[in-house]
Amino acid sequence: GNVAVLQKYLRQIHQHSECAEGDDSDSEELAFLYKDAFELIEESLEGLDRIQAIVADLQSFSRKSDDSWEYSDINKGLKTTLNVLNNKMKYHCKVITEFGDIPKIECDISKLQQVFLNIIINASQAIADKGVVRIRTSSTDKFVKIQISDNGEGMCKEQLKEIFAPFYT
Fold first, then answer.
1. Is 148 helix (H, G, I), strand (E, B) or coil?
2. How far apart are CA 91 and CA 29, in angstroms?
3. Which residues share a beta bridge with 148?
4. Are 102 and 118 within 8 A, CB to CB?
5. Cα–Cα distance measured from residue 73 to residue 144, given in angstroms and rounded to the nearest whole number
6. How far is 66 from 55, CA to CA, in rounded Å?
7. How many other C-beta atoms can be found within 10 angstroms of the C-beta atom of residue 76?
8. S-S: 110 plus which of 51, 65, 121, 123, CB 3.0-4.6 Å?
């Protein structure tokens, strides 16, 4: 949308610069068009940067796992997952992150990101209207701890027994 308006402005700027010979109303309009054209260019460039980041996150997220483990940053994996989910969640719930200073761990990060994605989507779906999904990471001497919680209605004991059953939602 910005680029179409910018194109229109540049045509008008060209027309005004050809016929404006000191007319104050034309110079005011020309000043407005210049200012707004530059703002549109800046917004477009910011949008392109966001698109580039989203594409990079999607590529990182969707890379094929070859079952090889490597040392990975769990906080970065969670951030990438949240970037992928941003549009799905931003109007429905607020995501609060409390990332601790944790060491890299040996894992298959793409499989963990898929687990994070599923848990975070489930957490957001447990929220009836608007709510909060909270993600915390921390570590001890031997473990890295990842907590994902929501303020949805929760599950009864019978439902809780089924959470690992195939296709149960």
1. strand
2. 37
3. 135
4. no
5. 11
6. 21
7. 14
8. 65
* Partners of residue 147 on adjacent β-strands: 136
Assigned token pair, 68:
């090889």
CA dist 115 → 37, 42, 100, 118 (Å): 44, 37, 19, 5
Residue 102 C-alpha from the chain's centroid:
22
Query: What is the residue type of 165?
Result: A
pTM: 0.61
Structure tokens at 98: 């409390």
Measure the CA–CA gap between 2 and 40, rounded to whole angstroms: 6
Report d(CA 109, CA 44) in Å as an integer.
32
Q: Are 34 and 12 in contact (CB under 8 A)?
A: no
CA distance 23 to 36: 20
H/E stretch holding 104: none
121-162 pLDDT per residue, tens: 888 888 888 889 999 999 998 999 999 999 888 888 888 888
